[in-house]
Design brief:
Length: 340
């Protein structure tokens, strides 16, 4: 296990004695990030832990509490966090590694990943947290030899899937618009990164391509991360711990045989009006990624007007005002509630 070097580290980069070349998997939630994590975790040289949500959940929670100051405190906070507990690491096996590093959260993140890889007997480590897509520039700045794989899935299938998972509040009527807007936001990020990050560090892959041509797609990804393709990656019987047991309720398909029937599942939605509205909200970016028929052909004029009004609060330039209005509305409701 390489040791961290505590001296002469410019611009917050984690400078290590030996190369650290992690593989980060990012993308919109329900885009196939878990499926890709499982496929890579089956590779004999690579370990992909359960998602850490390090920069989106752990770090904001810990900094807000302002309790993690020393190496020991930071590590204790990490191993106690609900997400990082899934790595099943022991304090005593991680602390000596972390104490060789600077007392930063970036070094802590690296230490946790390397400790996990060592525990699994892997040469290389990866990490899959969908919303780390928001932190790609920081990840590549901090770990200059990292590779980022961004997976994109038809936004209509993403929203169709999100409306069924228990953690996404599927019965909340506002969720539909929020899911569409979130996919748009992450799709724009993906395109921006593709245009501005070297192709040696960042790659876009479509979920549908992996399902339709799995071997060719995985060979291309292995070439990108400088690893050799192995058939075990497509063997469902190959053991993987990329998905913790408590998530299997909504992630079980990620460990199964790749099924091309999952492509364009949105076409089987029983309500055509839902498809029309998804096309209205995500159409331009769906076309940008080459997805089929993102149009409202057949949608009555009055419904198109309704969709335009419904979608207005979710437009990027309007959304901050919409969120402000929502917060004010919630405050008014709290004030109006009778005291008990």
């Amino acid at each position: 296990m390489p040791e961290c070097m505590n001296q002469n580290r410019p611009n917050n980069q984690v400078t290590i004695g030996a190369p650290f070349e992690p593989v980060f998997i990012v993308g919109a939630p329900r885009s196939g990030t878990t499926m890709l994590a499982v496929l890579l975790d089956r590779h004999p040289r690579i370990a992909i832990p359960p998602e850490t949500q390090f920069f989106t959940d752990f770090l904001p929670d810990t900094k807000k509490a302002e309790q993690a100051t020393s190496h020991q405190h930071k590590l204790n906070a990490a191993l106690a966090h609900p997400r990082l507990r899934d790595l099943e690491l022991e304090f005593d096996e991680v602390l000596p590694l972390f104490q060789r590093c600077q007392n930063t959260y970036e070094d802590l993140f690296r230490t946790l990943l390397e400790a996990y890889a060592r525990k699994k007997g892997a040469v290389r480590v990866g990490e899959k947290s969908p919303k780390h897509i928001e932190h790609v520039p920081n990840l590549l700045h901090t770990f200059p030899r990292a590779k980022v794989i961004c997976i994109v899935r038809d936004g209509r299938d993403v929203v169709h899937s999100l409306l069924k998972v228990p953690w996404a509040e599927p019965n909340n009527p506002r969720r539909f618009g929020l899911f569409c807007a979130e996919w748009n936001e992450y799709a724009r990020m993906a395109l921006h990164y593709k245009m501005n990050i070297p192709a040696t560090q960042f790659i876009l892959v479509r979920y549908e391509d992996i399902l339709r041509t799995p071997e060719a797609s995985l060979k291309a990804l292995c070439s990108f991360i400088n690893e050799s393709y192995t058939p075990e990656m497509l063997t469902p019987q190959q053991h993987t711990e990329a998905v913790p047991s408590w998530e299997m309720e909504w992630k079980s398909k990620a460990s199964q045989v790749l099924d091309p029937e999952r492509v364009e599942a949105w076409r089987r939605h029983p309500d055509e009006r839902v498809i029309w509205r998804m096309n209205a909200m995500m159409g331009s970016l769906l076309r940008e990624f080459g997805y089929a028929k993102p149009s409202s052909s057949g949608c009555p004029l009055h419904l198109r007007l309704v969709h335009a009004l419904q979608n207005l609060p979710y437009r990027p330039e309007i959304r901050p005002l919409s969120l402000l209005g929502l917060r004010l509305l919630r405050r008014c409701r709290l004030v109006q509630q009778p005291k008990r």
